[in-house]
Amino acid sequence: MKNSILSILIGVACTLVILSITSASKDQTHPAETPPSTVKPFKLPRSISIAGEEMPLSSLDVQERLDREILVNSYWQSNNLLMLKRSDKWFPVIEPILQEENIPDDFKYLALIESGLQDIVSPAGAAGPWQIMKSTGREKGLQIDNEVDERYHMEKATRVACSYLSEAYERFDNWTLAAASYNMGMAGTAKRLNEQQVNNYYDLRLNNETARYIFRIAAVKHIHENLNDYGYIYHNSEGYKLPVFDTVLVDGPVENWVDWALEQRITYKELRLYNPWIRADKLTNSSNNTYAILVAK
């Protein structure tokens, strides 16, 4: 009798052990699915340039500031991937214009850090992918009013940015200072150079935003050109794309853009999505301007 009870208890115990092991094996994640998270500093590049102008990496201060931006931007993975995807969408529009206007190709990264290539508005009122102020936009020939704001027109805004950068380069004879002036203005940049009696960006004591500005451009450029070094797996086929467009010219008023869009067999949402410079539901067009409307096929 005792042997029989002991046998039963041993059997129950074995069953519980087997069930426990089976349950644990089902709940446990396979080791391949849970690799350890690797967080580490990166070696600084031996050299890095913006628009062909070398960053003075022999300076400890310059090394530290570049390192900060590389760390901040390389570990901000979601933002980096979004910027890569939007770059595939918009760089093919921006790059030919930079080339036509004799502006170094690296300045596409300026637009990238300014807005992430989005139609945003800054607290100071700068708008569009190139973050252009109203005064600058109007001075450079953009239409900016309640119905039309061409700061949101990628091609026209890019040409305005090129005009500004070309003028800044002519003034400072230096692309790095031209880029810095895009953030703080030409007058402000010239004033700081004169006050501090230096002749380059890296020797200037500046407000935090402008002090980080060139280093952010350099870091984003470097990371995007060396993705494997920073642990990114990205293929251009994964980027965002623009559709194929028809161009419809409008040279008169439009009483209602919703009705106009429906006549073109598109939605009002599509109209505004691909023509974000349209800022109202109608177009008075008292000046009889001609507008090229992109209509997705």
- Main β-sheet, spatial strand arrangement: 1-2
Which stretches are low in confidence, meaning pLDDT under 50 for 5 or more residues running? 21-26
Query: What is the CATH class designation of the largest domain?
Result: Mainly Alpha
Quaternary assembly = single chain
Q: What profile does the largest beta sheet have?
A: 2 strands, antiparallel
Query: What number is the mean pLDDT?
Result: 90
Explain this structure.
The protein is mainly alpha-helical. It folds into 2 domains: 49-236, Lysozyme; 245-296. 51% of the residues lie in helices and 5% in strands. The chain has helices spanning 2-27, 60-74, 77-100, 108-115, 134-139, 154-172, 175-184, 186-196, 208-225, 257-263, 268-274, and strands at 49-50, 53-54, 245-250, 291-296. A two-stranded antiparallel sheet has the order 1-2. Strands 3-4 form a two-stranded antiparallel ribbon. Strand 1 (49-50) and strand 2 form a beta hairpin. Helix 2 crosses helix 9, helix 6 packs across helix 7 (175-184) and helix 7 (175-184) crosses helix 8 (186-196). The longest helix has 26 residues, at 2-27. The protein starts with a helix and ends with a strand.
